Amino acid sequence: MAKRRQLRGFDLKHLEGVAQLIGVDEVGRGALAGPVVAAAVLVTREFLDSRWADTNARRINDSKQLSAAEREGLWTEFDALVSQGRINVNYGSADVVEIEQFNILGATKLAMRRALEGIYPASAFQRTIEPDLFASAEQIAAYQPQVSARILIDGLALRNFPYPHVPVVTGDARSLCIAMASIVAKVTRDRLMAEMDTTFPGYGFAQHKGYGTEEHRDAVLRLGRCVQHREMFLRNLLAGKLDPAQMDFLRDPEEEVGEAPEAQP
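Structure (tokenized):
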């Protein structure tokens, strides 16, 4: 419990010099099926000093360390905090097509960018010169003051990412706002996978959430892949276990013969 209380202290320390802190985390990078989902949670010093944060920070942790019921309960509380204007929350995702097109790292950055864009555009973090008395009407209208916020992202630094950020390795176990983001991302993705289970029955998506459990692998061998499976992930997983001549079952049954469309950046 003492360790969990340190999450709030970590964020208070990183708020020095700025008015807001935004935690970002993702889930689903290692799954065999479904999207990768990222969430961004904005907090302020006022929130971190509030009774809610002081009382409930000990309940918040890396989403993987909490039960589904605990995550759902916290989601409801986060929703109330958003309604009260005390925090800001947004999530973004990248689907299987984008994962195949941009690889999992590129898709993860895309999901994180979409989550952050729902809070601030990337341009809000760019230093701009404030218009003076001699500025044109167009320059005055186009001016956007830089926001006073710091972004903490779980993991290593992201190259070629449009948002300036501070990487925090194992951030979901160290930062309160990152841990909150991990819960939002996890609950969001779990709900998406439960919906997917009704559309593609037989794979058990509602139970294993698209990860490579034995039950999931057996279902793929029995039914073949569906359009929500990540083809490259399946090939890497099963290549050493199957005769290459048997790998055709991974091919999308709706895929037409011919040249693949050129990937768009």
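The chain has two domains: 2-193, 200-250. Residues 200-250 form one domain.
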